[in-house]
């Protein structure tokens, strides 16, 4: 079945003029003063590795801030850590590279274009109800979400991924739903949040090679109780909070959105929780082999002092042979265990 191109053309025709104006403005923005530059402005042009803040990068690229953040999240735009911490920044060389690509900026915008259920269904030429069933069954995965006025989660999908799915699985676009999928949906299955978590974790892992930062990414999917059972050293848990990569994309501003993000980030269901605990244990072993977490008295140790824990938790050495198997170390008791 052919995939509709009407939505693509409509969006491009609406945005092309405004985006071209933003590109022209960004091309001449180098003469602006430092006071006019958002989020801390740019570094000195004489610097061998001059960078700009994300807001400034979006302006120079002629794209919206949300589009830039999603492009960074997807690995389409490289960022570097800001000196002394803070939000990641974009090299001017990276901006120049992107501006030289064919079809800029429309081609970049098209790769980060997101659609909701109604638009996604129209793109695939199907009813919204069928699109929702495919998403619940895990056939397509959301890349982000927002809260509507009723504070309900509204999932958004990459248009490019939907087009690729249509080309890959044309048999699922119409006709009877496969029996296995229908049985799964009738049991109440909904893989949207789980797939969003999985892709989010994978993309954060792709942005760092530091063993402790990778451990922190895995730890972010577990609630405090689950985390303390796997990482029983409170100093290590405090260190994981310090080194956790800051997500460039998906920082909701309102309290309701932050609460929704916090809930959606946590693994849900025994099998997913066990999978995350296994991955956390493996990454933690690699991190401990690389270097110990800071302790009180180490350089910068004061910053690593963990907050008071509720309950009795033992502080264990950073490197310790346990003589236990993986499942025993996970402390996994399974469903219904006492």
Share of helix among residues? 40-55%
Biggest sheet record: 3 strands, antiparallel
- Sheet with the most strands: spatial strand order: 3-5-4
End-to-end distance: 53 Å
Low-confidence stretches: 6-14, 27-48, 301-323, 333-338
Q: What's the Cα radius of gyration?
A: 23 Å
**How many DSSP H or I helices?**
16
- Approximately what portion of the residues adopt beta-strand conformation? under 5%
Tally of DSSP β-strands? 5
* Shape, per Cα inertia axes: globular
Structural class: mainly alpha
- The averaged pLDDT comes out at 79
Q: What series of H and E elements makes up the topology? A: HEHHEHHEHHEEHHHHHHHHH
Jot down its keywords.
single chain, 338 residues, mainly alpha, three-stranded antiparallel sheet, two-stranded antiparallel sheet, 16 helices, 49% helix, 5% strand
């Amino acid at each position: 079945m052919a995939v509709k191109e009407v939505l693509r053309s409509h969006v491009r025709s609406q945005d092309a003029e405004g985006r071209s104006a933003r590109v022209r403005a960004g091309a001449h923005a180098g003469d602006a003063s430092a006071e006019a530059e958002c989020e801390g402005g740019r570094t000195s042009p004489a610097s061998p590795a001059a960078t700009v803040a994300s807001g400034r990068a979006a302006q120079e690229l002629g794209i919206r801030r949300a589009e830039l953040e999603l492009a960074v999240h997807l690995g389409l735009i490289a960022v570097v850590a800001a000196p002394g911490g803070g939000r990641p920044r974009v090299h001017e060389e990276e901006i120049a590279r992107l501006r030289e690509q064919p079809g800029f900026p429309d081609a970049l915008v098209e790769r980060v274009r997101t659609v909701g259920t109604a638009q996604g269904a129209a793109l695939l030429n199907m009813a919204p109800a069928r699109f929702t069933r495919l998403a619940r069954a895990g056939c397509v995965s959301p890349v982000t979400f927002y809260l509507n006025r009723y504070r309900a989660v509204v999932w958004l999908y990459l248009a490019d991924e939907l087009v690729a799915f249509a080309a890959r699985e044309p048999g699922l676009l119409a006709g009877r739903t496969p029996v296995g999928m229908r049985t799964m949906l009738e049991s109440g299955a909904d893989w949207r949040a789980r797939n969003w978590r999985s892709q989010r974790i994978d993309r954060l892992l792709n942005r760092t090679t530091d063993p402790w930062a990778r451990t922190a990414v895995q730890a972010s999917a577990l609630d405090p109780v689950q985390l303390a059972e796997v990482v029983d050293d409170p100093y290590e848990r405090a260190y994981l909070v310090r080194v956790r990569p800051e997500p460039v994309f998906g920082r909701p501003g309102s309290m309701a959105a932050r609460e929704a993000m916090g809930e959606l980030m946590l693994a849900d269901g025994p099998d997913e929780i066990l999978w995350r605990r296994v991955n956390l244990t493996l990454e933690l072993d690699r991190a401990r082999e690389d270097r110990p977490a800071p302790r009180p008295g180490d350089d910068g140790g004061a910053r690593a002092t963990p907050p008071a824990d509720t309950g009795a938790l033992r502080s264990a050495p950073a490197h310790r042979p346990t003589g236990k198997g993986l499942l025993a170390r996970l402390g996994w008791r399974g469903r219904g265990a006492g």
